[in-house]
């Protein structure tokens, strides 16, 4: 009982909660300035999400890649790396899955789906490992390499789709066969595009937790992330850990791409610009304090806000971009915790006084 | 010393930080032309007091008078205007800038909108000559010696017209000869009418140069005395609060076979500079060998070479008769080499790990701390519980992050971890840096205990006193080579200092 | 087309593509030389592009004619500075992680600008078309072969960018302000003890970067797109960061790096004129600058010249 009380009163919970509240308030203020009714807007937002089984299912669909990319960025963070390249890794994962699904469309579903998933995860992981390798071997800042690799991935994916799998006259690949898809519970959610990827995303979060905090390798990775010099002194191989961490981070991102293809769209578009999955992942990871379960919660919040923004726009006329302002503000308050603590100061003082009494 | 108005008068200064009172109603007067020593242990509150005088901290209570006038110093600019200059212990120098740029920063002479580098260099050269500081205005800081960097620090204060100079532990990184030189500079400064506050915990320097001493302990002034009416023992007792003996009890060493043998070890930097230049060294079971030398002569590289943190180009390193050169750090640790690292925050600990996690930093992968791929939390915690008791590591609990522990307890945790691995060779690099007297004594005791148990101990330290007191044999390192070996009972600071400065080369012949 | 003309044109369009990058990379240098990472350049460019679109439109409506784009530039500077103020407050005053706080700018810019455009222009997702800058040739100089067409028949913003490169170099390396700014990025503790106000210098560095990145974004609206929409800026800010690093945090180096990126964009259009290039998929040509950057980083000898205190907040208590 006391333990739970302590957890809920700890800064790791309170700061994000207050930040979310402040973020929503900033959003409300922006709406008021724009002449909209924020209460209506937020009401429509929620209504959109829980209004119909279909929308509820679609919200889940929206949340799923956010969990993956959030885990991806958070995992790298925990190992002391800033993976700004989840975006490119998503694309590469997507492309690998599409390629497998379309190239071996004759295989039975029980074989093709796992193959496609493995291909996507592996491709994302290997792509991310390039940045990991360059960091480990040449000391090149991963931020810059992953940014460059994002663009490279974008053009490379487009090349693969356009030259090998293009649907004639369209700017996208052919549809993958039904044997390569993995929708589930579709009927429960009035044909919303729900898929097994969500379950796998949750399992990935559990894996993240167990791996990092319960295993030898995770211990090493955290040590490298917190103090690579000390890790080296203790006999750990920092370079190997950096590559490994980027690989795992990339696998998470790659899977986000995989399930967007085989779970949701069943084809892959030729993208004119970065689809932005990775940048959403950064926001989700920060919001989730880089903890796997925090990431799941923040992905839910992020997904609800983004999916709901359409309802807000439809119902209250508020441009959906408002949600980006809300999310940006929330991250701002989490990053600049000083502000949140400043807001909370009166409460802290009160608590201290209570303790004294 | 005249009875005129003091140049600085600190009156009942109190400064509180969360949890501690760093300065508790401290008063201090500095007269013109005086060298006033401020003596106290690490953490006694010396630096806090001086940072208040220099405007970096604000006192919670108390007042400051400069030249008889009450002043409020709320930023360094104000302090500088009042003629106060500070020579920091950790030099505040911008490495890629030139000497001149470092000196003029913040009050650059201008020609139009440009910096007038020409007149700046001329001014620097003039000051350099006036006080005998011998610096070249156009050298980059990263290219000049530690002693010269310190002179640049002094020059920064003079350039700003400082009359009151605060020297914060100025001799920590200097050779005995460089210390002599610094003393001469300080005498010259007071002769020119400057006044000096010297922060230190070295009694010898105080006796040699200061006029008066103020001793503070745990934030309180214990006493202010005239230097010529006191003696080192009295000062030490006042500083620590109990009588301390400078001699360390130790029996004659019981020396066994060679454990560590380095033969013609060479290492070069990426730019082709020789870091280790044919180094020979032997450490036997049951003895403590101290490495004396000025910072930057290959001490760090020597340790990195032995512990496998950096590759050597040629030569041989044997531990217990087995070649270990260029093996991985883990292999070397497993073959019986323990290492208390120079920088405990940077290398020795993961500050955001708990005590228990840090205590298995080198052994987490072995049974019983791991089973298969998984960590065994129970075993890790039991281990931690045991070591915390055995080595008297003061911590609220084994789940506490080591970041929140005191330096002394952090060091105890490292020593506990290293000694528990039962190494044949224990390397201790600057093991007492930043610790208070009690903690220093306990570290020294532990090193001697290891030696008495028949282990080989290699001690690297910049504190000559520590090397002299603890070692059974002293090897002097200069420019990547051992230039001589002496026995502590047969040598003195002067001799060691000359060897450390490279003026005397025995060619690495051991003394018998 | 003879080779010289072609070369001149290639150089000309290289500069067109580089200009925005030059401004923004210079902005990045001022921020990072003061010790503050600025990954928010992308967002600041968005702010600038937006302000230029809106500002120029209203200036035109008010009948300011050919002066309107300059009003757009001024608006971009103001909005860029305001945007960077958020970064400064979070990263300097509240000691937030500088990378994260930069990302916040990117999010806020993406949301806020489109939101305001929709408010101002009745739900339209982009600003109305404006009369943008026209290329201006400099008499006499433009008649020099290759160089003339390359450098002296350009948009006013390009001339401005080249002037600012020289000015930035001068300010950073010749003036007291520059010395102080760099000292704060190398060793704030040293600067502080000499009475240099670390917080103030860093604020100035970040705000200058907001102004310059704002002009960078404005350049795109005012020379390339003539309107602002959500995709007017898509990644140029990140390329500007690359150019800054590539150029070793030196204005002249950044100019070179920006021109390299501009060149590889320009050459896309020219390569396609040749028969042999048909066999290379265009995607691979698009990839060149990014892959090259990685290769250059891999092969570059020695560590890069990042300011030592980059990314660390300054806490006088920890000295």
Explain the overall architecture.
The complex is a heterotrimer of chains A (357), B (512) and C (319). Chain A is mostly helical and 357 residues long. Chain A is built from 15 helices and no strands. In chain A, α2 runs antiparallel to α14, α6 packs antiparallel against α7 and α8 runs antiparallel to α13. The longest helix of chain A is centred in the middle third of the chain and has 30 residues, at 109-138. Chain B is an alpha/beta fold. Chain B has a six-stranded mixed sheet, sandwiched between helices. In chain B, strands 18-21-22-15-23-24 form a six-stranded mixed sheet, sandwiched between helices. In chain B, β19 and β20 (374-375) form a beta hairpin. Chain C has one domain (3-129, 148-299): ABC transporter involved in vitamin B12 uptake, BtuC (Orthogonal Bundle). Chain C contains twelve helices and two strands; from the N terminus they run ααααβαβααααααα. Classes of the chains: A mainly alpha (357), B alpha/beta (512), C mainly alpha (319). At the A-C interface, α7, α12, α14 and α15 of A face α3, α4, α10 and α12 of C. Chain A: It holds the Pfam family BPD_transp_2. Chain A: It comes from Fontibacillus solani. Chain A: Keywords: Cell membrane, Membrane, Sugar transport, Transmembrane, Transmembrane helix, Transport. Chain A: It is found in: Cell membrane.
Please state the CA-atom Rg of chain B, rounded to the nearest Å.
25 Å
Q: Give the CATH topology of the largest domain in chain B.
A: Rossmann fold
Distance between the first and last residues' Cα of chain B: 51 Å
Q: What's the multimeric state?
A: heterotrimer
Name of the level-1 CATH class of the largest domain in chain B? Alpha Beta
CA-based gyration radius of chain A: 21 Å
- Return the CATH class of the largest domain in chain A: Mainly Alpha
Q: Enumerate how many helices of chain A there are, as a single number.
A: 15
Overall shape of chain A: it is globular
Q: Please summarize the sheet with the most strands of chain A.
A: none
How far the N terminus sits from the C terminus of chain A, by CA atoms, comes to 22 Å
Helix content of chain A: over 70%
Taking pLDDT < 50 over at least 5 consecutive residues as the criterion, the unreliable ranges of chain B are 507-512
Order of helices and strands of chain A: HHHHHHHHHHHHHHH
CATH topology term of the largest domain in chain A: ABC transporter involved in vitamin B12 uptake, BtuC
By DSSP (H or I, 4+ residues per run), the number of helices of chain B equals 17
């Amino acid at each position: 009982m006391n333990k739970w009380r302590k957890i809920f009163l700890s800064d790791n919970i309170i700061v994000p909660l207050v930040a979310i509240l402040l973020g929503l308030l900033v959003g409300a203020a922006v709406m008021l300035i724009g002449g909209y009714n924020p209460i209506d807007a937020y009401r429509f937002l929620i209504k959109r999400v829980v209004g119909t089984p279909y929308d509820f299912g679609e919200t889940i669909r929206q949340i799923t890649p956010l969990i993956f990319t959030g885990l991806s960025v958070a995992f790298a963070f925990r190992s002391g790396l800033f993976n700004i390249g989840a975006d490119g890794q998503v694309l590469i994962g997507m492309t690998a899955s599409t390629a497998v699904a379309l190239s071996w469309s004759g295989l039975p579903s029980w074989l093709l789906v796992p193959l496609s998933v493995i291909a996507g995860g592996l491709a994302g992981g290997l792509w991310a490992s390039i940045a990991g390798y360059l960091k480990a071997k040449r000391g090149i800042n991963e931020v810059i390499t992953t940014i460059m690799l994002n663009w490279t991935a974008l053009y490379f994916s487009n090349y693969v789709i356009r030259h090998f799998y293009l649907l004639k006259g369209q700017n996208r690949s052919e549809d993958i066969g039904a044997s390569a898809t993995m929708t589930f519970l579709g009927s429960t959610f009035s044909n919303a595009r729900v898929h097994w990827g969500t379950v796998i995303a949750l399992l990935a979060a559990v894996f993240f937790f167990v791996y990092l905090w319960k295993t030898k390798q995770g211990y090493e990775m955290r040590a490298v992330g917190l103090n690579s010099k000390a890790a080296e002194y203790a006999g750990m191989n920092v370079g190997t850990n950096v590559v490994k961490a980027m690989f795992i981070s990339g696998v998470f991102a790659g899977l986000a791409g995989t399930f967007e293809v085989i779970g949701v769209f069943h084809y892959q578009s030729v993208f004119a610009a970065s689809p932005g999955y990775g940048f959403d992942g950064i926001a989700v990871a920060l919001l989730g304090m880089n903890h796997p379960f925090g990431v799941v919660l923040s992905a839910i919040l992020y997904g609800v806000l983004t999916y709901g923004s359409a309802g807000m726009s439809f119902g209250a006329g508020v441009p959906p971009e408002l949600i980006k302002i809300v999310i940006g503000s929330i991250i701002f308050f989490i990053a600049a915790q000083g502000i949140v603590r400043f807001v909370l100061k009166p409460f802290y003082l009160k608590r201290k006084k209570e303790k004294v009494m | 010393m005249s009875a005129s108005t003091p140049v600085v008068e600190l009156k009942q200064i109190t400064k509180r930080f969360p949890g501690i009172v760093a300065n508790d109603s401290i008063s201090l007067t500095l007269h013109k032309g005086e060298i006033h020593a401020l003596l106290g242990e690490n953490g006694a509150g010396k630096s806090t007091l001086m940072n208040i005088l220099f405007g970096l901290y604000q006192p919670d209570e108390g007042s400051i008078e400069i030249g008889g006038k009450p002043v409020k110093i709320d930023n360094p600019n104000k302090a500088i205007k009042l003629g106060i200059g500070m020579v920091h212990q950790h030099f505040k120098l911008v490495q890629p800038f030139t000497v001149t740029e470092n000196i003029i920063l913040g009050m650059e002479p201008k020609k139009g909108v440009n910096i007038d580098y020409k007149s700046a260099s001329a001014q620097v050269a003039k000051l350099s000559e006036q006080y005998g500081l011998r610096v070249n205005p156009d050298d980059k800081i990263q290219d000049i010696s530690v002693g010269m960097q310190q002179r640049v620090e002094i020059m920064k204060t003079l350039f700003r017209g400082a009359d009151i100079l605060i020297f914060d532990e100025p001799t920590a990184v200097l050779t005995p000869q460089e210390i002599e030189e610094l003393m001469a500079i300080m005498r010259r400064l007071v002769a020119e009418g400057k006044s000096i506050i010297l922060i230190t915990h070295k009694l010898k320097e105080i006796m040699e140069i200061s006029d008066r001493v103020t001793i503070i302990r745990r934030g309180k002034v214990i006493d202010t005395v005239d230097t010529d009416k006191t003696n080192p023992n009295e000062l030490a007792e006042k500083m620590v609060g109990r009588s301390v003996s400078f001699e360390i009890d130790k029996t004659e060493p019981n020396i066994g076979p060679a454990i560590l043998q380095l033969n013609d070890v060479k290492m070069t930097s990426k730019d082709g500079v020789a870091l280790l230049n044919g180094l020979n060294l032997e450490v036997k079971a049951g003895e403590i060998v101290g490495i004396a030398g000025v910072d930057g002569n290959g001490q760090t590289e020597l340790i990195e070479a032995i512990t496998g943190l950096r590759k050597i180009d040629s030569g041989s390193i044997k531990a217990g008769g087995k070649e270990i050169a260029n093996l991985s750090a883990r292999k070397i640790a497993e073959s019986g080499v323990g290492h208390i690292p120079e920088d405990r925050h940077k290398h020795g600990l993961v500050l955001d790990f708990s005590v228990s996690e840090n205590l298995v930093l080198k052994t987490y992968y072995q049974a019983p701390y791991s089973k298969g791929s998984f960590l065994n939390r129970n075993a890790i915690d039991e281990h931690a519980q045991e070591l915390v008791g055995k080595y008297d590591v003061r911590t609220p609990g084994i789940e506490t992050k080591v970041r929140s522990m005191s330096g002394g307890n952090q060091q105890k945790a490292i020593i506990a971890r290293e000694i528990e691995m039962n190494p044949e060779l224990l390397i201790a690099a600057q093991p007492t840096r930043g610790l208070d007297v009690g903690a220093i004594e306990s570290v020294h005791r532990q090193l001697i205990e290891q030696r008495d148990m028949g282990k080989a101990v290699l001690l690297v330290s910049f504190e000559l006193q520590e090397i002299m007191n603890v070692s059974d044999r002293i090897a002097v390192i200069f420019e990547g080579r051992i230039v001589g070996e002496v026995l502590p009972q047969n040598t003195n600071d002067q001799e060691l200092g000359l060897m450390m400065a490279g003026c005397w080369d025995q060619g690495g012949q051991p003394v018998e | 087309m003879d080779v010289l003309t072609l070369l001149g044109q290639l150089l000309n369009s290289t500069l067109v593509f580089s200009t925005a990058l030059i401004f923004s990379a210079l902005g990045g240098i001022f921020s990072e030389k003061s010790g503050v990472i600025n990954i928010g350049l992308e967002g600041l460019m968005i702010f600038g592009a937006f302000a230029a679109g809106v500002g120029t439109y209203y200036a035109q409506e008010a009948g300011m004619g050919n002066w309107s784009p300059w009003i757009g530039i001024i608006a971009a500077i103001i909005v860029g500075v305001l945007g960077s103020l958020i970064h400064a407050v979070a990263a300097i005053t509240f000691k937030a992680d500088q990378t994260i706080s930069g990302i916040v700018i990117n999010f806020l810019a993406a949301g806020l600008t489109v939101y305001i455009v929709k408010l101002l222009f009745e739900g339209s997702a982009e600003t109305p078309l404006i009369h943008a800058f026209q290329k201006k040739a400099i008499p006499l100089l433009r008649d020099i072969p290759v160089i003339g067409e390359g450098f002296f028949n350009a948009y006013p913003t390009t001339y401005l960018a080249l002037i600012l490169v020289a000015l930035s170099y001068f300010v950073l390396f010749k003036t007291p302000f520059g010395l102080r700014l760099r000292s704060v990025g190398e060793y704030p503790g040293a600067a502080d003890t000499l009475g240099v106000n670390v917080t103030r210098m860093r604020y100035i560095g970040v705000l200058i970067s907001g102004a310059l990145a704002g002009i960078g974004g404005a350049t795109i609206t005012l020379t390339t797109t003539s309107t602002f929409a959500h995709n007017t800026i898509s990644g140029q800010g990140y390329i500007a960061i690359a150019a800054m690093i590539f150029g070793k945090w030196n204005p002249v180096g950044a100019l070179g790096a920006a021109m390299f990126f501009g060149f590889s964009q320009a050459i896309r259009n020219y390569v396609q004129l040749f028969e042999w290039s048909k066999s290379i998929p265009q995607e691979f040509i698009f990839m060149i600058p990014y892959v090259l950057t990685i290769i250059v980083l891999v092969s570059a000898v020695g560590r890069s010249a990042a300011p030592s205190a980059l990314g660390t907040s300054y806490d006088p208590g920890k000295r």
